[in-house]
Design goal:
Strand content of chain A: under 5%
CATH superfamily of the largest domain in chain A: MetI-like
Radius of gyration of chain A: 22 Å
Structural class of chain B: alpha/beta
CATH superfamily of the largest domain in chain B: P-loop containing nucleotide triphosphate hydrolases
CATH architecture of the largest domain in chain B: 3-Layer(aba) Sandwich
CATH class of the largest domain in chain B: Alpha Beta
CATH topology of the largest domain in chain B: Rossmann fold
Strand order of the largest sheet of chain B: 6-7-8-3-9-10
Radius of gyration of chain B: 18 Å
Number of domains of chain A: 2
Oligomer: heterodimer
Largest interface: A-B, 21 and 26 residues
Helix content of chain A: over 70%
Largest sheet of chain A: none
CATH architecture of the largest domain in chain A: Orthogonal Bundle
Number of helices of chain B: 8
Distance between the termini of chain A: 16 Å
Distance between the termini of chain B: 37 Å
Largest sheet of chain B: 6 strands, mixed
Structural class of chain A: mainly alpha
Number of helices of chain A: 10
Order of helices and strands of chain B: EEEHEEEHHHHEHEHEEH
Number of strands of chain B: 10
CATH class of the largest domain in chain A: Mainly Alpha
CATH topology of the largest domain in chain A: MetI-like fold
């Protein structure tokens, strides 16, 4: 990120907070529906000081991590098989497209019936809501590999899992990264959505508690946290990996 | 001793809906240790012929014999070097060179010993830890040649490996290629559209006709080495090859 854009961003966010404060003070909306930034900050400090915020963040992130790992492993495996074996593509491929179109919260009733109100159920929703996006981008990534890479590797004796681990996956990596990015976004929606409905720990649960207690500051605070985590993971972690991959693979 | 024999190789290209006969029965016999250059008008299928020898494509008719046995698939005794090298951008130069050895399950220390020899031979030692995007086109081709030689193949198949190089780099590599051939005693099959290149490198030059291609003429070159591109004594041979080629190019 370039310096001038950072300055612009800081000014932008300060402006938002100022406008937000002004709107809250103007009492266009009653205070129990629209809290001031100060009240939200206060709530954040409070939930942070009793540890419940960090416990919530930790729980959600752990579920995300486990669910996303399952999705990445499963999604990549399925994507590679689809790209390399035409029959798999013609059969499972169409099913994957269908499954991908199911919104993540639509998996929740199934997950509750299968797993009960457990971590397992939430992880299931997380995994299944991100897996098929990863499958599709893996498929596209492997399909667009320079065929000479694969031919050279086969010529030098690589086949089967060797070919997949040493050539197909690294060669498709620039594609895979954007798939992981998309997958993570779906997974994050999945975790929060599932936690809301399961009402069993995590940030989604805290959000729901805020609603039940009519505590608008908490609702705002938790939403802010969810967004900030999104910015950090997307804008910092993925951006770094992406930049590195792009230059290493000679794409920039 | 005959190393490679092509018997009546026929290959069709799929061109939209109709089939185009690219190779119309290619016959060629190559003795152990020969340096054979294949020249022909562009699109005549000389590269396809090389790919068939490599086992990356199957002929529609005819057979390739390697040491008297029919070729059915690709194998490390026939290593191909592609025009753009097809180096793996996710690997360092040394790891690229060691790729085939790794696939063969050779332990790390042994791999390093073997690759060192070829990195030295191709004057790449300084670049062992570089990534391919940091190399010039000429350097990349050196890596590609080292990667092929490391496999210690009986036959080296080169598909216009110098076509994308600038003149100076190419002239240098043409001399080096002769030294490598003399040092390693490999059988080399070298596809080129450049007649000068063919006469400088080859012990034999096989001229392909236009589609459906057959080998129109084989010219033997028995002349001292290292040959240079501006050697006047090679001019008559070049003229002879060009006079064979010219009518074929016109048919195109």
């Amino acid at each position: 990120m370039k310096k001038p854009s950072l300055v612009k961003q800081i000014i932008f966010y300060i402006a938002i907070v100022v406008i937000w404060q002004l709107v809250a003070m103007s009492s266009v909306w009653p205070n129990n529906l629209f809290p001031s930034p100060y009240e939200v900050a206060e709530d954040l400090v409070y939930t942070a000081s009793d540890g419940s915020l960090f416990f919530g963040i930790g729980t959600s992130l752990l579920r995300l991590l486990i669910g996303l790992t399952i999705a990445i492993v499963g999604g990549m495996l399925l994507g590679i098989l689809m790209a390399r074996i035409e029959t798999v593509n013609q059969t499972i491929g169409s099913l994957v497209l269908g499954l991908q179109s199911i919104p993540s919260v639509a998996w929740v009733p199934l997950a509750i019936l299968w797993f009960g109100l457990t971590d397992g159920g939430i992880i299931f929703v997380t995994a299944v809501s991100s897996m098929f996006a990863i499958t599709i981008s893996t498929y596209a990534g492997v399909k667009t590999i320079n065929p000479h890479y694969i031919e050279a590797a086969r010529n030098m004796g690589a086949k089967g899992t060797q070919l997949a681990t040493y050539v197909l996956i690294p060669a498709a990596f620039p594609h895979l990264i954007s798939g992981f990015k998309q997958g993570w976004a779906f997974a994050w929606r999945g975790v929060i959505g599932a936690e809301l409905l399961f009402s069993f720990l995590g940030l989604g649960f805290l959000l729901n508690v805020g609603r039940q207690l009519n505590d608008i500051s908490q609702v705002f605070a938790i939403m802010l946290v969810i967004m900030m985590i999104g910015i950090v993971i997307d804008g910092i972690i993925f951006k770094r990996i992406e930049n590195k991959v792009m230059s290493r693979w000679g794409l920039r | 001793m005959t190393k490679l024999e092509a018997k009546n190789i026929v290959k069709y290209f799929k061109h939209d809906s109709h089939r185009l006969k690219a190779l119309g029965g290619v016959n060629l016999q190559i003795e152990d240790g020969e340096f054979v250059c294949l020249v022909g008008p562009s699109g005549c299928g000389k590269s396809t012929f090389l790919r068939i020898v490599a086992g990356l494509e199957t002929p529609d008719e005819g057979e390739i014999f390697f040491d008297g046995k029919p070729v059915t698939s690709t194998g490390p005794e026939r290593i191909i070097v592609f025009q753009e090298g097809a180096l793996f951008p996710w690997l360092k130069v040394q790891d690229n060179v060691e790729f085939g050895l790794k696939m063969a399950g050779i332990p790390k220390e042994e791999r390093a010993q073997i690759s060192k020899r070829y990195l030295d031979m191709m004057q790449l030692t300084k670049f062992a830890d570089s990534y391919t995007y940091q190399l010039s086109t000429g350097m990349k081709q050196r890596v590609a040649i080292a990667r092929a030689l490391v496999m210690d193949p009986d036959v080296l198949l080169m598909d216009e490996p110098f076509a994308a190089l600038d003149a100076q780099t190419r002239d240098l590599l043409l001399v080096e290629m002769q030294l490598i051939w003399e040092k390693t005693k490999k059988t080399i099959l070298f596809v080129t559209h450049n007649v000068t290149e063919a006469t400088v490198l080859g012990t034999k030059v096989a001229v392909f006709s236009n589609r459906p291609s057959t080998i129109k003429k084989v010219i033997n070159i028995d002349y001292k080495r290292p040959r240079l591109v501006d050697d006047q004594n090679l001019f008559p041979l070049q003229q002879e090859i060009l006079s064979e080629l010219r009518p074929e190019v016109k048919k195109n």
